């Protein structure tokens, strides 16, 4: 299975992080490697892919904390594995609690505070981005764990690039002056950049932010894309976990 390992966390022995793709030799189906039970894929195969992915990142499948994402801007502090409703971001300072994000175009963001030892995982689509969910996650890490943003290492993962993020006027209005006029009469938003700006405004250092250049819509061999493939699109997972 092809797994993306963020460079920003490489060399740090007590944190593990990764993101799945749709490539792997287990996938002899059209959908490719998929980690969601809710898109019509064979549950046995999804389970096998699920275990393989987390094993490859070095995380136990019993340690997962999974937000049941709803395009909110709610950030939840968790101390145990499990499923969590009504939220799109989790933070923890507990080892062996692996924070999971589920995506297919939306932006997965992973945060690590190596000084006060805390992590965060955020799902930011355009609604979450407008709702400043990344800003709220950093604020909650500051409040709960005394995190200094200057120390945070951040990963902004593969997601819809500005190249493919054309929006209608109703979304553009909500983004205000943040829209990117790309072609005449078309309006584009740049979610990776918006979330990067939220981190910078919170005091995270530019050198401490790794931004994936991959576009999930353009790179169809490697990534699932809801916008490209619709309801039956597979899903990818990103995860971060502190170890002993
Ligand atoms: Zn693209």
Brief rundown of the structure:
With 244 residues, the chain is of the alpha/beta class. 23% of the residues lie in helices and 25% in strands.
Topology, please?
Blueprint: E1 3-4, E2 15-20, H1 43-57, E3 64-67, E4 75-77, E5 82-84, E6 89-92, E7 98-103, E8 107-113, E9 118-124, H2 126-130, H3 133-145, E10 153-156, E11 166-167, H4 169-175, E12 180-181, E13 187-188, H5 191-202, E14 209-211, H6 226-229, E15 236-242
Helix pairs in contact: 3-5
The protein binds zinc ion.
Overall description:
The protein is α/β, with parallel strands linked by helices. The protein has one domain (3-242): 4-Layer Sandwich (CNF1/YfiH-like putative cysteine hydrolases), CATH 3.60.140. It contains 6 helices and 15 strands. The protein has helices spanning 43-57, 126-130, 133-145, 169-175, 191-202, 226-229, and strands at 3-4, 15-20, 64-67, 75-77, 82-84, 89-92, 98-103, 107-113, 118-124, 153-156, 166-167, 180-181, 187-188, 209-211, 236-242. It has a 6-stranded mixed beta sheet, with helices on one face. A 6-stranded mixed beta sheet has the order 4-6-9-8-10-14. A hairpin with a 5-residue loop joins strand 12 and strand 13. Helix 3 packs parallel to helix 5. It starts with a strand and ends with a strand. The model has no long low-confidence stretch (mean pLDDT 93). The structure holds zinc ion. Zinc ion (ZN) binds at residues 161, 163-164, 215, 217-218.
